[in-house]
Amino acid sequence: MLLAVDYWLLAATKLGTLLLFLWYFYPAYKVGHRDFALL
Questions:
Q1: Coil, helix or strand for 1?
Q2: How is the chain split among helix, strand and coil, in percent rounded to 5?
Q3: Which of 22, 31, 33, 36 is the most exposed place for a label (fewest CB within 10 A)?
Q4: pLDDT tens digits, one per residue of 1-39
């Protein structure tokens, strides 16, 4: 049970980090900062 909770917490954290990364860097990428495409 505890392992399942830890797994979902980790998954939610990864998903949140990914969404934050996209929200933060995608507008800069659209503006034309080519170096962001290499990340």
A1: coil
A2: 90, 0, 10
A3: 31
A4: 678 888 889 999 999 999 988 888 777 767 665 655 555
Strand ranges for the chain from DSSP E:
none
- Please, which residues have CB within 8 angstroms of residue 36's CB and are 6 or more apart in sequence? 25, 28, 29
Q: How many Å apart are CA 19 and CA 21, to the nearest integer?
A: 5
Q: 39: closest CA among 20, 27, 25? A: 25
Residue type, 20: L
* Structure tokens given for 1: 């049970």
